[in-house]
Amino acid sequence: MSEDLRNAAERVARQAYAPHSGYHVGAALRSANGQTYVGCNVENASYPVSACAERGAISAAVAAEGRGFRLDAIAVVALNAQGEWLPVTPCGACRQMLVEFGAEAEVGFNGPDAGWQTVRAGDLLPYRFILPDTGPR
Ligand SMILES: [Zn+2]
Question: Do 110 and 87 form a contact (C-beta atoms < 8 A)?
Fold first, then answer.
């Protein structure tokens, strides 16, 4: 996990729209093509409408690279309103999204116990949903 990704995730966390929780999350990913894309959480007064940083970064990558996008690594950083680091791990929905684009991808985050750690995306969600082949459509 490069220092650049972690720094980019911290920078974009400062852009987060998190007036309801005060939990500012930034994600910076590197595609297999070597490009960097970022996302931050965007909350809403209607809480379920809120969007996660990780999926924002993936959306930006797919918008730029199309269906061929593959995830190589992603860093996730969370800050409080004072800019201090908080623990964070990708939520379940984001784990599902990450493995679809790169089960072998490195996922770095400031874990709740061990500080900064890097794990394989597939290890974050071992029994991920896989859409079976349903035959001709
Ligand atoms: Zn999420």
Answer: yes
- Domain made up of 3-124: CATH architecture: 3-Layer(aba) Sandwich (3.40)
Report the alpha-carbon distance of residue 97 to residue 87 in Å, rounded. Answer: 20
For strand 85-86 and strand 115-120, is the pairing parallel, antiparallel, or unpaired?
A: unpaired
Domains of the chain, by residue range, sit at 3-124
What does pTM read for this prediction? Answer: 0.94
Active site residues: 54
Radius of gyration (Cα) for the chain, nearest Å? 15
136 CA to middle of ligand 1, Å?
Answer: 32
Question: Among positive and negative, which fits the CA dihedral 127, 40, 71, 112?
Answer: negative
Rounded to the nearest angstrom, the distance between the alpha carbon of 51 and the centre of ligand 1 is 7
Structure tokens that stand for 137 in this block: 């459509």
Distance 54 CA to ligand 1 centre (A): 6
CA of 86 to the centre of ligand 1 (A): 15
pLDDT digits (tens, 9 = 90+) for 59-77: 999 999 999 999 999 999 9
